[in-house]
Amino acid sequence: MTVRVASLRPSGLLRAAAALTAAAFLSACASLGGGSPADIFDIRAPETFNGIGGRTSAQLLVPTPSALEALATNRVVVRPTPAQIAYYPKSTWSDDLPALVQTKLVRAFENSGKAKAVGTPGQSLAIDYQVIVDIRAFELDVAGGRSAHVALGVKLLDDRTGKVRATKLFEARVPARTDTATDAIAALDQAAGEAFTDIVEWTAGVI
Predict the structure, then answer these.
(1) CB 3.0–4.6 Å: which of 31, 49, 81, 187 could bond 174 by disulfide?
(2) Global confidence as pTM
(3) pLDDT reported for residue 94
């Protein structure tokens, strides 16, 4: 029996390699649930505040917030039962949640005009106070009546003495129209805005 070996010219080899590469890429996308990209969502920083008072010379640092591993992700959390955490498929935040909360809280402080400067670690500011945040909830709570639930524990640390000046838990709940990702995120955006506003106004009253 004669076995014929087909020969490929260099251009044929390149076309064959390209075809194999494309096939491998499409296969990898399929294995990752590709086909339709994820919807990317953002939250807004509040711009209106009450009882802020005059501008101070204090400079604030907002470190990256802490969070449980299940929350420290760019996936949007939904809680079907009090003991269960799930995620919306094909829906993500524009950044991992701790970084997103940090960025929006910094912008909220800047929008208030209260502090002389607000920054994050690595920006070489001379810091007076640190606003230390623990993300305790940032989810659509289906078990609790289909409402967006945001809970942020905050410590205000005097950076010059190392002592905690004040601490408080900020919570906001906003009903969602439906349990779809779009309506859940609209409610979460509103709840987060309420919590950020409260944090900025509370901090202004302490410093």
Answers:
(1) 187
(2) 0.81
(3) 96
Exposed (0-12), middle (13-18) or buried (19+): which is 195, by Cβ within 10 Å? buried
The angle, 0 to 180 degrees and rounded to 10, between the axes of the packed helices 181-206 and 97-112 is 50
DSSP letter (8 states) at residue 145: T
The torsion defined by the Cα of 174, 107, 104 and 114, in degrees rounded to 10, comes to -60
Q: Quick one: DSSP state of residue 65?
A: P
Both tokens of residue 5? 């070996």
- 50: buried, middle or exposed (CB in 10 Å: 19+, 13-18, 0-12)? exposed
Helix (H, G, I), strand (E, B) or coil at 115: coil
What tens digit of pLDDT does each residue of 110-165 get? 999 888 899 999 887 889 999 999 999 999 999 878 999 999 999 999 999 999 99
- The continuous run of DSSP H or E covering 151 comes out as strand 147-158
Which token pair is 113?
A: 């005009």
Cα 87 to Cα 75: distance, rounded to the nearest angstrom:
6
Q: For 26-49, write each residue's pLDDT tens digit.
A: 333 333 344 467 899 999 999 999
What is the token pair recorded at 19? 């075809």
The CA radius of gyration of the chain, in Å to the nearest whole number, is 24
